[in-house]
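Anyone? Bumping this.
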Amino acid sequence: MLNYTLRRLAFAVPTLLVISFIIFALLDLAPNDPTGNLPLTIPPEVREEIRRSLGLGEAFPIRYLKWLQQFMVNEPLNLIERILGIEIGNSAERLRVRSWVTRSPVVDLVVERLPQTLLVVGMGYVAGILIALPIGVVSAYRQYSWFDQIGTFVSMVGFSVPTFFTGVLLIVIFSVHLGWFPSIYDTMHQVTHLPSFWVQVRQMVLPVAVLGLYNAAQLSRFVRASMLDNLGQDYVRTARAKGMRERVVLFIHVLRNSLVPVVTVIALGIPTVFSGAIITEQIFRVNGLGQLLITAIQGADIPLVQTLTFIFAVLIVFFNLIADLLYGMLDPRIRYE
Amino acid sequence: MRRQMNAPSASDWEASALRAVALKTVFHTQDGTIHAVNGVSFHVGEGELLAVVGESGSGKSVAMMSLVRLLPMPPAAVTGEVFFQGRDLMTLDAEELRRVRGARIGFVFQDPMTSLNPVFTVGYQLMEPLRRHLGMSRRRARERAVELLELVGIPSAADRLDDYPHVFSGGMRQRVGIAMALACEPRVLIADEPTTALDVTVQAQILELVRDLRGRLGMAIIWVTHDLGVAAGIADRIMVMYGGQVVEQAATADLFEAPRHPYTRALLDTLPGRHVPGERLRAIGGQPPLMLQEPASCPFAQRCPQVFDRCLAANPPLVQAAPGHDVACWRELPVDKVHHGH
């Protein structure tokens, strides 16, 4: 298992290098100019000076390698320094990936936005899982019952209606008409005591509900299908023939088998938590990673887009590995040697 | 309505470990109803090995699963009576029935590759019935599980307990399946084609094991198989099923020497051992019946070489043709001998 993990990690390095090159090259090929938004009164020489100060004077391969060094070496070092409070080498001299728009290091922006996204989108994901599991299990066990029919219908609706519709719908109902929850997520809100905690909970309810329903719609279908696959298996009959209670048959024998693919799918979906529910973050004004990416794209902030996209790529590669390892842990028939 | 007239002697019935009367199983599916089992009555004596023989779709497996309602309940509907240890299993509720299953009636299934749960260890699956029915502690159940694996001839049993099913061969898995069925020392063991999925040498080993276990534990065994050769080698008595009903039943030697039903004779003719070398193997022409309604005529009539008008007019009852030998065929049953009830 360890051997396999190390081999997979070693494999991830060239994969990520190729991805990083493609991302960098694609965005570099796109027409862009960091001085494009500056006033027209600035003379061309000064503009050229600005471009050179941002490192754009160099040839493409040099810029790529420098970006790679900044991203792979400098920024991780900065993070380690910040977390441990120590200084490794000459940290002030270290070049950092900087945003063209804000001129602040890209990683600092990401670190600022990450907690909002993890809290809101992550909770939406967790809520989705918690809703989907029982619905999927009961739907499969009582296949074609009214519960299953309603579950299927709700899933189809939840899956096919986009979040920008459900989000706005919930705002209209619960914020505008009923006034129960705020429609805008206040990122600056600090949780200091119980009442402020409730404010935080209330402002999270709507975005979490939108994302939870969307995730649950997909996942509950998957849980149901996986349960149905297993309910028809011979070992289920064997368990019943041994006189096991239905509870044991369902929740131990069948569920344990059904969870193998479900857990894999859940693990594979985690990177989407980070890349954020871009649309949902926009609707509820959550200042998360999704919104950061959107503003970066709109403002042609190439370094920020490159870095964010690459971070997502790293997460996807990493969670693919996690999913494979989980599969091996959950299913004894699969052994990585 | 078809009447059962196999009227075994009273002592026969008292000695039976399990007795089914007029068992009927109907599947209500979207494409219509399927009458899989049509009024099957039989018994198996204490310590007796009864082989149930018939081709695919003859209802033999469904009939045995119906005994303890081990079928998906809708779409299946089971009626009849099943007497076991002084009770009618059909009158028991689901929980009472679960206390019989696995505890007093054990099951071995056809495909050992799929009938064990792949994500639990063999030990865990063996200990489940021990803990549920006998209330054993984990430690005691583990000791007993080792004994059971030794009983079914699995080498270094204590070490194999924590292995998952996929590391066992097919034959070894079937041994585990048998150990699981025998865990609580049932009075009746129902084996549903337990050797069909195994290759011939392994099949012989399993048959040997069952013969040995039967001698040691003395439970009654109902052995479902489509292989007359297997049945001949192991059974005390053979019951032949066709079209969801019993067409003939007799002691093994009796059945092989003097088969009375045309279907039994046709089955025996298909056995390769009965052929002159070089001759083509024989098969029974035609297809088994689709059982979309209760049979109103002899189910074998379409394929029977000796069919006559009466076979198409009415379904022959199972009657005693000789002591201990019952057959359901109009050829064996002169009109004046028909009498009703039992």
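Late reply, but here is one note on the structure posted above: The longest strand of chain B covers residues 16-29.
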